[in-house]
Amino acid sequence: MVNKTVNILGTEYEIKTCLWKEDKYMQDNSLQGYCAEYGKRIITVDPEDEEFFRPLRKDDIERSYKETLRHEIFHAFLNESGLSSSSGVPEEGWAKNEEMIDWFAIQSPKIFKIFQELDILSGNIEPDRKCGKCITIDDEYEDTLYKCMSECHEDFVTIDGMPAQNLYKYCPNCGAKMEEYRNE
Question: What angle do CA 133, 164, 142 make, to 5 degrees?
Answer without folding.
Answer: 100
